[in-house]
Amino acid sequence: MNKRLLPLSAILLLAMLLTACQLPMQPGAAAASPTPAVIKVTATPRATLTPRPTAAPSATSAPFAAAQAAVEAYAEALRKGDFAAASKMVSQYSLMVSQLTAGGIETSMKAGGDAARLANFKLLGIKAAGETTVLAQVSYISGKDAADKEESWPFRLENGAWRYNWDNLVDFHTLTVDPQTTNGVTFIPTRLVRYSDRTVLELMGQNRTNEPIVFGQPNETLARFLVDGQKVEAEKTFLALDALRTTPNLQLVLKGYYPVYPSAVEIRIWRDFNEKPWFTFELP
Fold first, then answer.
1. Residue 59: pLDDT band by 50, 70, 90 thresholds?
2. What domains can you pick out in the chain, each with its CATH number?
């Protein structure tokens, strides 16, 4: 064979092979399966929903459906004269403060007779008075031929149930205050008790003189409270201290409902003399 034809033959053979590779695949011919790539999947932790603990209903949650039902149930028991049921709807908290029992409350209701039975009851609204207390504004008629009476009933959340605070108690605050002595008289405030229509400062008094002393005379202001930066006079009354005696249950009364406690009190302010009050107590 001519040696010059060898390169030409090689080129023709290569061209035939390339043409064969470009021929279309015939129907029914199996395509070569490519080798799949192995992909490692790393599991990503999914966020899980952790259920929130169910909070006990509070006075700041709205609406006050449970509290409203409790108010209406209490009023209905009084309307029917079912004092046994009504006394069981009174909070243990208020019984403790009043030093009473449910049985004592029932007896007190029965003693009230017709005046303890309600008629024409209306629930006018409810508002929060703290995390566990609401004030229910109500109107009703008590007794025979009586006019409509409107007041606020405090209800307290106690063991998951709303209960009436006896005597319209809202809450109380125990005081730790140093005693003060002026002109032989010693006072020490012991507790602030807040009701829906008043705040009461309880204090102990001691007269170390040989003469009785009466606070609240016509020429003096018995007491002034400092409430939210404003001075408000206490109700006019008399505090009588016997000679050489200690009186543990004295009270100064601030009329009306205040959302905060008084921060200070002045006792015995003479009107005709430019003198400092006999006593000035901070009420922390």
1. low
2. 65-167 (3.10.450.100), 175-282 (2.60.40)
Instruction: Name the 3-class secondary structure at 69.
Output: helix
pLDDT at 58 (0 to 100): 55
Q: Which two tokens stand for residue 198?
A: 């008043």
250: number of Cβ within 10 Å: 19
Exposure string of 180-208, with b = 16+ CB inside 10 Å and e = fewer, is eeeeebbbbbeebbbbbebbbbbbebbbe
CA distances from residue 59 to 125, 126, 131, 153 in whole angstroms, order as listed: 13, 10, 5, 14
For the record, the structure tokens of 51 come out as: 């259920």
What pTM does this model have? 0.77
- Rounded distance between C-alpha atoms, residue 239 and residue 212, angstroms: 11
| Cβ-proximal residues to 155 (8 Å cutoff; 6+ apart), any chain | 67, 70, 71, 91, 133, 134, 136, 162, 163, 164, 165
